[in-house]
Amino acid sequence: MRTVTETVSTGVAADAAKLAGRTRIAEKPGGDAEDVFPGLRSCPFATPAQYAPMRDKPITKVPLSVNDQEVWWVSRHEDARAVLNDRRFSSDRRKENFPLFNDDADTRERFRKQKPSMIGLDGAEHATARRAVVGEFTVRRMAALRPRIQEIVDEFIDRMLASDQPVDLVQALSLPVPSLVICEMLGAPYEDHEYFQKRSSRLISRTTSPEERADAFDELRGYMDKLITIKESNPGDDLFSRQIARQREEGEIDHESLVSMGFLLLLAGHETTANMISLGTVGFLHNPAQLAAIKADPSKTPLAVEEMLRYFTIVELVTSRVATEDVEIGGVTIKADDGVVVSGLSANWDPAVFAEPDELDVERGARHHIAFGYGPHQCLGQNLARLELEIVFNTLFRRIPELRLAVPVDDIAFKSDANIYGVYELPVTW
Amino acid sequence: MRIKADTDVCVGSGQCVLTEPAVFDQGDDGIVLLLTDHPDGDAAKRARDAVNLCPSQALSIVED
User: Fold this and answer.
1) Do B56 and A85 touch (CB under 8 A)?
2) Residue whose C-alpha is closest to residue A140's, from B56, B39, B5, B31
3) How far is Cα A51 from Cα A271, in angstroms, rounded to an integer?
4) In A, which residues are within 8 Å of B49 by CB distance?
5) Residues A383-401: pLDDT tens digits?
6) What whole-number distance in Å separates Cα of residue A53 and Cα of residue A185?
7) C or N terminus of chain B, fewer CB within 10 Å?
């Protein structure tokens, strides 16, 4: 199968470049800097120390460590839900004070110039964009994918079992499963996964240089542009082809919007789930009683998945907003044009809502976490993610019941430097 | 109790369907469909959970 990357100019040297900025727990990057927002996690089993005292205060302005922008730091669960479901807060990333987590003018300019995808639209425009595609992600549509996802998971676990140990779970299972699933949904050739995985990692790392980030942005957008162009003339049975057919019926194809949507779905569709697979596996292996509970009764896994989502809250900061008018939240007036950062991680560890939040408890019944956000922008692919995680955990621990970490947990390279938390490598054995 | 669903506000997250599939469904367009608007027993209890979980607050309860 001819891949899209063959027709996109690629930088082989750039591909070979290792990701910069790997950090280990032992080094505690910025771990002592207690007034830094967003905080850096020194380990996956705790939130940054500065978060708890912030929840005890009214919503407060803090300077963002990356660029010194003064933003309102919203960290209580109740306040977080209030902000995220209040239409007076805008998601428009092109607005001047929209909090971004790099001080990288080039990338900011690129985000400003591209036609926004639904994540950056408000109100009626957002509703139109979301409604065009949300039917692809219904609970029923996702349930219909179960057999295929099971087959994919089994196939990658077969390969794992046939490999020399230890195996890096990230490369063997965590990344390929959601990558292949999203490729099949979107109709992107799986052969291209390395191309977009590398670029999306660079885009979301906080330590990528501005030049590298700008290149990653351009190349990913270029890739999606090419893919949509192919689908326009050569449709298949996939999400993009259906979007194109629908737009044709309604008038004309909005190519730029489809490119933006593809950019969003590709990025959101594999990085997030991949990191949750790795972290969830660490979470289970580090908490044997919790693992024993789902091994004994796999019907408990869906709620265990919710708890893993709450506990790790890997996408802490996508829920930024900018106020379009003065708004009172929790007794504090947020002025028009002020930037607001809702820390999902902090909200999901709010003891007012989740008793003993630092305890990983798969029977907690934590459905009301905001790991997928809240409000009209709540994650479009959440039910796909839930399904993938449930199938992966149940299959992994059923087929490899002796699975264990091949290194001490302190030696695992966690992504404390990325805007999506996770694990760079996860050596496992059995 | 009676459940009301505002299909203009619904964003199709499917949280309600996950919570109580005997009461809530989604159309092919992803938007909420009520299978009954008068749930009782455990279904009523779970329907209340769904009202709380709905990210766009498209669901509401009217007490009879």
Assistant:
1) yes
2) B31
3) 25
4) 367
5) 999 999 999 999 999 999 9
6) 43
7) C
